[in-house]
Each structure stands twice: as structure tokens, then as C-alpha cells.
Amino acid sequence: MLFAASPASRAAPLQLPKTARTVFVNIGSHTSPVLPPNSSVVAIAYEPIVHASIAPSAGLHVVPVAVSDWTGFAMMGVHGRFSSKASSSLSVPTDRMRKSIRRDEPSTIVPVASMSSVIESIPASLSLWFLKTDMQGKTQRP
């Protein structure tokens, strides 16, 4: 077991299917999250921008939220919104980045969940076997 929710967790664990034994977590999944290989695995994809474009799949749960080290709301910039390679970020790009990534304006307001709340939401009876992160955001805080 890689991680499990603490029994003293303040967050209520997710009510996942009784057949689940293992959880795959994919943060920043874009439109192609990691899918569960069988009914004993549940996949949870956290995707704040293109969540509605993720095709339904057995055992896949999509959460339309950004993940960071805090909880609340934020402006999320979307880069290449009108291409198939759209990306998003919580960080404010520099002028150089704006030119190279062609950040589209305006930004989008998104809900943000803390990484600790994501981990704490996994029932203690399940193993977090796979954790994939593809997040762009602030790398340092004041």
C-alpha cells in the first residue's frame, strides 16, 4: 500500500464501489486519464478544464477540480484552448512564456482542492497503488 487515508481524517472517505480494492489517482488527466484494468480498481481523474470531454468508462470517476497545496478558488490560465493540445496552469506566466505558449485570455475560475484532501478522501480499506500528476502551477510561495 502506497498511501491510505488516516483514521483521524477530517474529510469523509469517498463511497466507492464495494468491489474496489485499489485506487488509481490521475491529477491533471486532460482528456485521457489512466483507466482501471478491472472491477477491483477504481480510477479517479482530477481535471478542472476539459473534464466534460473525458469519455465515460467503467470504474472511472471524473472530478472537475484543480489540485494544489491549498483549497479554494483560483484563476486558471488555459494555453492553446482552441487546439487539441490545450493545457492549463494555476501559475501566472511571464511575458516570455506568454509568447511561447500563447496563453489564451481570459483565465477561467476553477475550484481547487488540496492534495491532502484528495489523499484523505480515499477509504482506509483501499490501496492507493498509482498516483500520476501532470500539474503546472506555482513552484514557490511567498
What keywords describe this structure?
disordered N terminus; 2 helices; mainly beta; 35% strand; 4-stranded mixed sheet; 142 residues; 4-stranded parallel sheet
Give a structural overview.
- 9% of the residues lie in helices and 35% in strands.
- The protein starts with 21 loop residues before the first strand and ends in a 9-residue tail after the last strand.
- It has helices at 95-101, 115-120; strands at residues 22-27, 41-46, 60-63, 66-68, 72-79, 87-89, 103-114, 127-133.
- A four-stranded parallel β-sheet has the order 3-2-1-8, with no helix packed on it. The chain has a four-stranded mixed β-sheet with strand order 4-7-5-6.
- 23% of the residues are buried.
- It has 142 residues and is mainly beta.
- The chain has one domain (22-133).
